[in-house]
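Entry 14. Ran structure prediction on the chain below.
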Amino acid sequence: MSAKKLKQIENQIQKIKDELWEMGEMRPGSLTVQYKVPKEKKGPYYQLSYTHKMRSRTQYVRAEFVDQTRQQIEVYKRFSILRIRFSIFEFLFLMSTVSLGGGNSDFISFNAAIRAPGIAMSRRYSSTSTFLFVTTL
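Output, structure tokens:
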């Protein structure tokens, strides 16, 4: 990979780190309006639903905290997107620095990639090609 592409990847990684650093309070889940009498839509209240340790949870949210809770949920959604983008760019950077013959090859050794810290890789075979699946730890 060229030095220019490596620099672009490094810049993207730094932008993501900066944005992550500036994030405020966050919370996962979704906020919905429920009604005590659903058919008549009387007695509205807000409910936060989320999953923690593989279990579904719900919490009531007071009306005065609804805007704050919505903002925290949006921050968490942005965090999730940035986390994935960071993993992709970090992987691209890692893979661009590992090469087969010491040259500037875009191909990597499967065994060398497995030894890289923080990356779990597995092969999947089909009749026409081999796929490499990457998961960051």
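The helical segments are 3-22, 66-97, 110-115. Will compare against last week's run tomorrow.
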